Amino acid sequence: MLDLQALRALATVLREGSFERAARQMHVTPSAVSQRIRALEEKLGCVLLVRTSPVTATEEGARLYLHFLQIEVLESDLARDLQPLGDAASKRGRSIRVAVNADSLATWIIPALADFHARSGDTVALHVDDQDHTREWLRSGTVFAAVTASAEPVAGCRVDPLGSMRYHALASPAFQQRHFQGRDLQAAFAEAPMLVYNQKDQLQHRFLRELLGDVDPHPPVWWLPSTHAFMDAARAGLGWGLHPLPLVVDDIASGRLVDLSPGHSIDVPLYWQSWRLDSETVHTLRACMLRAAEGTLQQ
Amino acid sequence: MLDLQALRALATVLREGSFERAARQMHVTPSAVSQRIRALEEKLGCVLLVRTSPVTATEEGARLYLHFLQIEVLESDLARDLQPLGDAASKRGRSIRVAVNADSLATWIIPALADFHARSGDTVALHVDDQDHTREWLRSGTVFAAVTASAEPVAGCRVDPLGSMRYHALASPAFQQRHFQGRDLQAAFAEAPMLVYNQKDQLQHRFLRELLGDVDPHPPVWWLPSTHAFMDAARAGLGWGLHPLPLVVDDIASGRLVDLSPGHSIDVPLYWQSWRLDSETVHTLRACMLRAAEGTLQQ
């Protein structure tokens, strides 16, 4: 079996981002940390870390890190059964890594985490990426579980449907008046500034294709990679865009934002994918995620 | 001089992320786009694009893209002077790239962009990164301007102070009661779950160093890479963390969040850095940013 101390050194360097910080946390010298990892690299015959700042994992390093996380989760289950409740010492510094999309984080993830923390006492380290790209985080072993747009399981993972996030095309009343009033839709959408989350976000383009067919207008674009900035920009009249319904119900009800195409929404199905591991912690996290999603997403 | 059509092809591929999408926007074939860029690469003797999905720029490609952006900004100034106001055709698809930190985006950036859009009609493409890392985006030529934590100018850029973002260490009243009531601060902070934005965020560690000296406790950690998720998590009682004052004044006033160390805050000075270019657009953007920051940040 692999040397657990060496695995722990690898994991700590990746969590802390440097050999110095890892050494401080492990109460050893940086050179001891470095030696343990080098021994592991020699034994396995591959490089595990990219020595940049912060230090990152090679593909092999990430796989090994996942292996360490799995052992850690299993040990934590063991500790829960063996130790008096409330003894948090064995959990110090451990967080379960999960990748989520930004709109989920802005709506139902925090309640799910609160529920999970109340039940397990554990904390979670979140990574945020587009729902079409969180699968890569899972595949590379960087995270333990992910909210994905794909129902196709990553090898070694199980998949649960979470429901669908519903999106509406919204803008401020002043923006609608200025750009859409009395105009042909195609002409209006070719000229009205459009909000886009980032380069990976294809939701607005998909909406335009569904509405206008194969026209592909190229309006002026804002890139706003934050769910709340996206809403703030819509309220300020900077552009139109597709917003997650749970966050904008009040804005629609109060007339602060108006639906540019009433009756037409886009549903994005989401899935919970996690590494198969018979662990109480993983089961609890999954149950909390499914429950919180059920209350927010379209079923 | 370099062929402008080839530069435009390079820029369009980088904006759209693929040769196919760039070709559609330029109304030519993907192979025509590819040929123009290859000719540029042969002339300059270096590779400009990494042919991944999405396509990204090499260091040389990024520098060339910046060059194209500079020409585009200068031409847009020219167009504004030569064309009747409101003719947006020449601006189609162009956005000025700017890197900002998440907490600025959540507070004063959207008002600044609204002001800028009203004056110039231009749109902006935002990249979000830690304020200690936005300088890299500027140096690599990926962005035209950035909110940075460093007053030291990137070569070729000018620097303006924006003021300081003030941070307070906050938690929910229930969290404070559970973890801090009647306890030694050092013992409490070693055990109370801590909110951290991401691996780059050192603000909580800095706060602990200032408060406790060189103790370096390692409490359980949440990673929550979103300004609003950070606040939602604090309100839900998941952990303590440093929050930007402009976003939490109401929470503090209403008692929804409490200050763990009243009278002790951390000020993070921010700067506006932008490429030196005698352009009306760049001047307007700078003026709007400085004005909006002045209303929100500590001067």
Secondary-structure topology with pairs:
2 copies of one chain form a homodimer.
Chain A: H1 4-16, H2 19-26, H3 30-44, E1 49-50, E2 56-57, H4 59-82, E3 95-100, H5 102-120, E4 123-128, H6 134-139, E5 145-148, E6 157-171, H7 173-180, H8 185-191, E7 194-196, H9 203-212, E8 221-223, H10 227-235, E9 241-244, H11 245-254, E10 258-259, E11 265-275, H12 280-296
Parallel strand pairs in A: 3-4, 3-5, 7-8
Antiparallel strand pairs in A: 1-2, 5-11, 6-9, 6-10, 6-11
How would you describe the shape of chain A?
A: elongated
Number of strands of chain A: 11
Main sheet of chain A, how many strands, which sense, barrel? 7 strands, mixed
The CATH homologous superfamily name of the domain at 165-268 in chain A equals: Periplasmic binding protein-like II
| Fraction of residues in β-strands of chain A | 15-25%
CATH architecture of the domain at 165-268 in chain A: 3-Layer(aba) Sandwich
Low-confidence stretches of chain A: 82-93
SSE string of chain A, helix = H, strand = E? Answer: HHHEEHEHEHEEHHEHEHEHEEH
Give the terminus-to-terminus CA distance of chain A.
45 Å
Structural Rg of chain A? 23 Å
Q: Kindly identify the CATH topology of the domain at 165-268 in chain A.
A: D-Maltodextrin-Binding Protein, domain 2
Q: What percent of residues of chain A adopt helix (DSSP H or I)?
A: 40-55%
